[in-house]
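Problem 12. The chain below contains 253 residues. Write out its predicted structure in token notation.
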Amino acid sequence: MGEKITLVIVDDEKPARTELKRLLSRFEDVEVVGEAEDGLQAVKLVRRMKPEVILLDIQMPGLDGFQVIEKIKKLEKVPFVIFITAYDEYAIRAFEVNAVDYILKPVEEERLAEAIQRAKGAIGDSGRMSDLEALLKALKPAKKRIALRVGESIVMVDVDDIIYATVSSGELRVVTEKVEGSPSLRSLDELSRELPPEQFVRVHRAYIANVDKIHEITPWFNGSYRIKMKDEKGPVIPLSRNQAKELRKRFNW
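Solution.
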């Protein structure tokens, strides 16, 4: 048996980390040298342990997987990354970049074994290094745009610019910093399917919010909350008690 490859597990869910460790314990050529439950811990752990491979969740509180990569891409020893996530919108070109692999949850042992073999092959390829800059460019999806009817005009907006969407009196409205208009879609459910799930959350039965635009969350009546969007002067929308669980998980609040 050759030398073991060193590996770090990064996932905000403890059961997921436990299951990955269980599966990896069956691989005699893998040594798990640490685990992190969020992006900030991950950056510190990678800098300290200098692993050859990271099993990295994309959606995490604090720093997400892409932000972790931004923080470690300039290290002298840059690890290879295997993404493990519940979402598949990044997978199109994941297999083309420096033997980086992409596994959907729930993780199956056979699929994990394939990813480990790809990483071992990359590590054993003399002169080959993990290029996280290329990884970011390859995996970050192009900005998506949607059309809004504003008065008599049709305005194209980047989904990143959407602050929130709501239904009022049966009409679907999308709000950005500069415009407010109606998409051709008929419901929040239809709109939600068109938006990146890691960025947009159903915060109320009548509202979808861009989590990147949340400025402040304050308690309201009967266990509900209010969300101030964009900045301290931004619009305020409701957060229901039931939907608050998702934001607690994302922001570790």
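Discussion. The chain is about 25% helix and 30% strand. Students who got a different answer should revisit the alignment rule from Section 12.3.
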